Hints:
The chain is mainly alpha-helical. It has two domains: 59 residues, Orthogonal Bundle (434 Repressor (Amino-terminal Domain)), CATH 1.10.260; 35 residues, no CATH class. The chain contains seven helices and no strands. Helix 2 packs across helix 3. The protein is elongated and about 55 Å long. The two termini are 32 Å apart.
Amino acid sequence: xxxxxxxxxxxxxxxxxxxxxxxxxxxxxxxxxxxxxxxxxxxxxxxxxxxxxxxxxxxxxxxxxxxxxxxxxxxxxxxxxxxxxxxxxxxxxxxxxxxxxxxxxxxxxxxx
Length: 112
């Protein structure tokens, strides 16, 4: 079952340890509007949605349910790297991704 915008917003706000009032202050808004968003009574404008995502260190796509990861590709440096890799010829891409997979596996094993 897909989580509603309001539930995702509340989940992100609570994960950041923010009250509705604290989040509202970050947006220069009244705290009651955050509650209305979380209860899915009203939807924010796109400008407010962007501010919410930034304040909660997540993405608009996550809040809207378009992706499952809260911070997917939020890191612009990582996004640039991935775009660079995507632009390479298939053979180069294959080698880079093979090496990257090995490094990720090694890092995961070392962090246990």
